[in-house]
Amino acid sequence: MKIEFLGKKLKIKNKDAIKALEDNSVISLKDLLPGDAGIVLDVVSDTALRLQLTELGFTSGARVAAVRAAPLGDPRAFELHGSRITLGNEESKRVAVVAVNGKSAGRRLVALTDSQITLKTLLPGDEAVVHDVAGDHALRLQLMELGFMPGARVRAVRSAPLGDPRAYELHGTRITLGNEEAGVIIMETAENGGGIKNKEIPLSESQITLKQLKPGKEATVHDVAGSHQLRLRLMEMGFIPGTAIKAVRSAPLGDPKAYEIHGSRITLGNDEAEAIVMNTG
User: Fold this and answer.
1) Is the pLDDT of residue 3 over 60?
2) CATH number, residue 270
3) Is residue 72 part of a domain?
4) Taking a C-beta distance cutoff of 8 angstroms, is the pair 70, 107 a contact?
């Protein structure tokens, strides 16, 4: 079997590699993502680097696993013949591999535990740590190259009025992702036994809670306090910072109350409405 890599024709003889190539394409070792495994096909480089890499064990048919990458993606650690080897991207991009087990070339699925959420549901102001990245290889590679590596701390900054896209802060840089991209990044919210803390918002003189908004009056959402689950539910209902809300009516005893938002009428209990901070000025 013959394939092309970095402009050079490679002749593949290893049976396992040939079988893997039936479903997966050749990639560089640099593009093998942490947690994925592959079969070395060949090294395409000048004589000195080729000799160096083959002496390390990167020979045709060798099994290699990507272990981890530095925060900015260079260098990367690999496991080969039971040893851990660290290579720079300039070296690892010269090693042709084919992914096995359908991970790097196929779609990776990650089941969520009770302490995990997707980045899409991380609310503005909250922080969490990247656990893993799901999705197909191309998307995972793109996101990891942006810095969404396991262990990286991410803070949600803000979202568009309808919740898509959203802005995040990572390594001191602000990055905007669509919900489809953010939905494949798995975040750990219970680092060191903790979790996302309940958000408290002190009121200024020009602010009230939605519970205090009188029927017929309008105000704009400033932020949402409370637990992550409550904040997520309320924001999914449309209570996003900057959104105009009109109080419509309340039950005879004052609980629940009805509000108008985006042309729809929504009823909230006072406990929920009290978590929504409104700007009245």
Assistant:
1) yes
2) 2.30.30.90
3) yes
4) no
Let me know whether 180 and 140 are in one domain: yes
* Strand-pair partners of 219: 245
How many domains does one find in the chain? 3
Count of other CB atoms within 10 angstroms of residue 219:
24
Of 26, 88, 24, 21, the closest CA to residue 53 belongs to: 88
Contact 151, 128 (CB under 8 A): no
75 CB contacts (<8 Å, ≥6 apart)? 69, 86, 87, 88, 89
Q: Does 142 lie in the same domain as 229?
A: no
User: C-alpha angle with apex 242: 159 to 200, nearest 5 degrees?
Assistant: 80
What's 51's DSSP letter?
H
The answer on pLDDT for 21 being more than 50 is: yes
Three-state DSSP class for 46?
A: coil
DSSP one-letter code for 165: S
Strands 107-108 and 63-69: what pairing? Answer: unpaired
H/E stretch holding 276: strand 276-279
Q: Is the pTM of this model over 0.85?
A: no
135 and 96 fall within a common domain: no
Domain carrying residue 71: 2-104
Question: Considering the domain boundaries, does residue 202 fall inside one?
Answer: no
Spatial distance between the Cα atoms of 159 and 150, rounded to a whole number of angstroms: 23
Find out whether 146 and 175 touch, Cβ atoms under 8 Å.
yes
pLDDT tens per residue across span 143-177: 988 989 888 899 999 888 777 899 999 988 999 99
Q: Is the pLDDT of residue 16 over 90?
A: no
Eight-class DSSP state of 231: H
